[in-house]
Amino acid sequence: GENVEQHPSTLSVQEGDSAVIKCTYSDSASNYFPWYKQELGKGPQLIIDIRSNVGEKKDQRIAVTLNKTAKHFSLHITETQPEDSAVYFCAASFDTGRRALTFGSGTRLQVQP
Amino acid sequence: GAVVSQHPSWVICKSGTSVKIECRSLDFQATTMFWYRQFPKQSLMLMATSNEGSKATYEQGVEKDKFLINHASLTLSTLTVTSAHPEDSSFYICSAMDGTGTDTQYFGPGTRLTVL
Fold first, then answer.
1. How, if at all, do strands A107-112 and A86-92 pair?
2. SS3 assignment, position A59
3. Is A100 left (phi over 0), alpha (psi -120 to 50) or beta?
4. Of the four listed, A42, A103, B103, B112, which is most buried by Cβ atoms within 10 Å?
């Protein structure tokens, strides 16, 4: 089955700096890669996703890049703000069968004011 | 749009009792719903996949007789934890996928279960 590895497990940045979180996946058939933000005691919130026919996607301060050959994808947050502090999860799935997500282990991002 | 609700948001029960958690898609029809379990400071672990009108598919190691899943309509799936024990205490989260062909999963706010 699919295995998703996520690094780093914790990340502390100063407000205004950029943050980068990286994930690798094992199943070359995976073709959908979402990123979720989870605040304490809440459910995950989709912040951006990318499909395997696209190499990069951007939404304001958030961007995701995908390298299918290397089987890794990354989340980039620019101009970080204290409210960006949360746990971020990457995930992978493929669009056949039950399409269940396999999650990475999570990255705790702390933005210092 | 794409809102998923869960009820209750938290529940405390005695060991040996059963607890039902509801997951609803409020503004779309969910052909597929998923149930996840999350322990403190850990990732989400898929428990089962629920398709409307059919039996749920459970992940390896998840007891189907203990975690009963019913997906009776396109907007409601329920998870019943039967004969709950303290080790079942966890954060249970559902997600819903619409039938438009995209893979986007929308997550509920989660239910904190504490078994005494």
1. antiparallel
2. strand
3. beta
4. A103
pLDDT at B1: 65
Q: Which residues in chain B have their CB less than 8 angstroms from residue A41's CB?
A: 110, 112
**Residue B86: what are its φ and ψ, rounded to 5°?**
-50, -35
User: Are A93 and A106 within 8 A, CB to CB?
Assistant: no
Residues of A in contact with B97 (CB under 8 A): 99
pLDDT digits 0-9 by tens, A19-29: 999 999 999 98
Beta carbons of A99 and B32 less than 8 Å apart: yes
Q: What is the pLDDT of residues A29-80, one digit of tens each?
A: 898 999 999 999 999 999 999 988 889 999 999 999 999 999 999 999 999 9
